[in-house]
Amino acid sequence: xxxxxxxxxxxxxxxxxxxxxxxxxxxxxxxxxxxxxxxxxxxxxxxxxxxxxxxxxxxxxxxxxxxxxxxxxxxxxxxxxxxxxxxxxxxxxxxxxxxxxxxxxxxxxxxxxxxxxxxxx
Length: 121
What we know:
Blueprint: E1 3-6, E2 9-12, E3 17-23, E4 32-38, E5 45-50, E6 56-58, E7 66-71, E8 76-81, E9 90-97, H1 100-104, E10 110-111, E11 115-120
Parallel strand pairs: 2-11
Antiparallel strand pairs: 1-3, 3-8, 4-5, 4-9, 5-6, 7-8, 9-10, 9-11
């Protein structure tokens, strides 16, 4: 599976962005997908996860503001981010793994390249 993330940019605090991740390969629908982020000087953080069946989980920092979704017919993963804060500034990565645990352990099978999100105050 090859993953291509897009949609990052510069936005003011309180604004919204939608990140997208286009996946190649026929097996996209069988993978658990997730979004990670990494800010300068900080550890990588798992922000949101969605299973092949559509179950979701979020980091506390993302709950109520971010929404992860997938379209298995189009091989795409999305992350809608609302009420953005300066602390959301980071490089965001999409990833694919065999299950929730592999993503929570930071060991997905595939990584996309990052897309920069910058939130100005």
